[in-house]
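Many introductory courses stop at the sequence. We go one step further.
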Amino acid sequence: MMMTAFVWILTYAVHSTVLILFVWALTKLFPKAPLRLQESLWRVALFGGIVTATVTQVAGVEPLGGRMSLPASMQGQPVVEASSSTPVATNERVVRRKITQHDAGDVRITTVQESKPAAAPVAATPKKPGTPGKWPWVMLGLAGFGALFALARLGVAARRAHAQLRGRRDVIEDPILEKFFELCDAAGFPKEGKKRLRLTASSHLRSPVALLRREVVIPERAIEALTPAQQHGMVAHEIAHLRRRDPQWALVTAVFEAAFVFQPLNHLARRKLQELAEFQCDDWAATTTGGGTHLAKCLAEVASWLDDTRAPAALTVAMADRDSPVVRRITRLLHGRRKAGTGEVSPMLRVGTGLLLLGSGVFLIPNIAPASQTPTDAERQVTTAEEAPLSTVTVHDLGGESGPRRSAVTIDREDETVRVQVDRKPEPEPRLVPEPPRGGDRIIIRGFYGDSFPFGEGCGSVGVDIDIEGLEAEIEGAFGLGFPFSSGCERQRRTLERGREKLERGREKLERKRRKLERKRQRWERRHAPDVEAEQGVFEL
């Protein structure tokens, strides 16, 4: 409720500002428009903000100007209640299980996916409206305090004016009383009965005023200092105010300005309405009395009487006060400029113009939208929780006996459970190289036995069956037996040298193959190292 009032006040402030500024610019562009039409426009500008703000808030109209959202600090976040639905069980019967393993370098990722039976739908989580922030309370408090202060000040001024008007008397002097009755007949007021007008005089006033109670009060000084023609114009001006019900309008506009004191442009609209009322009363008085010259002289004379004492506009409508455009009024009366805006305007045109202005305000001026109409993070979370299945994520740190750290993540949803485990692969066992089969190249070493041969003297031969890769070991084993070679066995020596060269070529060939495999391994690691590091960073929590 408080937030609704706050949004309405902000919408009224925006609409009233746009309406008043638009009418002010319109009257500046067309200064010769009829006074009655200008007065209707200013009244719509003053009071129309209430109508347009209420219509847009109640009817939910989307204006062409769009909506201006409040800052998030001025709108409380919604309170989400805990759901009363049954929590999802984690040990339900497994319907289907899928195990996936992926090796990335020295890391092995194991994923176990287990599906569950379909669970019952979860009821929507209820939400409560959030508590508004402090700024709406502060701004509403300031606006309310300002309105109370302005209304109290207006009440004090009303009591002061009432006390100032005490002791006034009925005017019985002629010819002013006679002219007063003639003007009452011209204005359509009866001479007798409750609706008749009363003419009084007060010694505390400096300017004639028209009161709410159908009474015209003139200063005592006016009876003695003004001529009968000037008195005639003065009384005609005040009767014109009563004829137009200007005291009632003045009271309404003053109270409205005090109630919405946070809108300073209301003062401009009220002063413009008061100025237009004075111009129209001058025109009626000049037309009724036969000219505006005597009324202009009366205005100049009464303006010279003014001092700091004045009656409030809420109760009275003075003929001339310090804020009234006396110079412009005198100029209009003397130079005949009053005829420029005295054209008659049909009521239908005035009503149609006012409705057009109000409709434009409703459908064109931007509105203020509360921040709650824009989805907040809390509402998005609630919506996601209502639309998506509930899930629980659990992270486990596992320590093995060998010391390396392992991690596991369990995601428990309504329809399935997913467990992801990351650990290092076990060290590979050493691979035994199979013993090459017998039957490769056969090297026969012939020579003479020396005296050191333990089996006797003579010349014989030794045969050794070897493979190329184990040639060196075979030869060293043969020499380890202690077979001595003679320096004269040149042919056997050359054969041995050729065997050694063949062994060296075999070793070089194996080394080239080893380097080639090493380059392939390095290229594979450069290609797959980022993926392995990323997976280790995710799962080694």
